[in-house]
Amino acid sequence: DADVTQTPRNRITKTGKRIMLECSQTKGHDRMYWYRQDPGLGLRLIYYSFDVKDINKGEISDGYSVSRQAQAKFSLSLESAIPNQTALYFCATSDGGNGVEYFGPGTRLTVT
Amino acid sequence: AQKVTQAQTEISVVEKEDVTLDCVYETRDTTYYLFWYKQPPSGELVFLIRRNSFDEQNEISGRYSWNFQKSTSSFNFTITASQVVDSAVYFCALNNAGGTSYGKLTFGQGTILTVHP
């Protein structure tokens, strides 16, 4: 089984809808991250969490919120989806500040 | 603030050619880590290498090699005798060991490598 899983893998939703992307990991890492990938822009950090009680905004947090339900689970919500949130979303985990980040398979989100 | 620049948006080569992917970074910290990730057409992100700022030794792993030069703030990646399976998007990334960017990766824009048979 994959160490970092994301659900759903693909989602099409309409403008204004609320949507949640979920991430689970079995690596036992404390640190978890949400990124979005857009063509030509690389990966940009949305939110990150260094432990269950720690939530921090990243570079592009507007329009997003997160919940760290447990060490192993970190969810990303779009309260009212808009078309420019159409992107590939990645969850990642890390075991330390200088550690490698391990990525989930990604969720392709389309907002129409 | 830290920044990673991959000036080559797309590179196209023919199989067996050598290819170098450029990465230039900016940081005020003296201690940091540099990474390369590969994103094949299937979409997942695969970790390739981590290098810390105190280790300027070049590294070779099979057909892959990395050249780290602090003097020019560069961490370039060379694929020798490229193969079609090397076709992917390659990302360079930076993680500072201190300051406000502690524990977070900053990615470059990525370089799309296409290897033709």
- What is the CA-CA span between the terminal residues of chain B? 41 Å
Compressed to H and E, one letter per element, the order of chain A equals: EEEEEEEEEEE
Portion of residues in helices of chain A?
under 10%
Query: In percent, how helical is the residue content of chain B?
Result: under 10%
Total strand segments of chain B: 12
Approximate shape of chain B? globular
Secondary structural class of chain B: mainly beta
Order of helices and strands of chain B: EEEEEEEEEEEE
Number of strands of chain A: 11
- Poorly predicted tracts of residues of chain B: none
Strand content of chain A: over 45%
Distance between the termini of chain A: 33 Å
- Mean pLDDT rating of chain B: 92
Q: What oligomeric arrangement do these chains adopt?
A: heterodimer
The radius of gyration of chain A is 13 Å
The biggest beta sheet of chain B reads:
6 strands, mixed
Q: What is the overall number of helices of chain A?
A: 0
Gross morphology of chain A is globular
Estimated structural class of chain A: mainly beta
Please give the radius of gyration of chain B in angstroms. Answer: 14 Å
**Greatest interface and its participating residue counts:** A-B, 24 and 23 residues
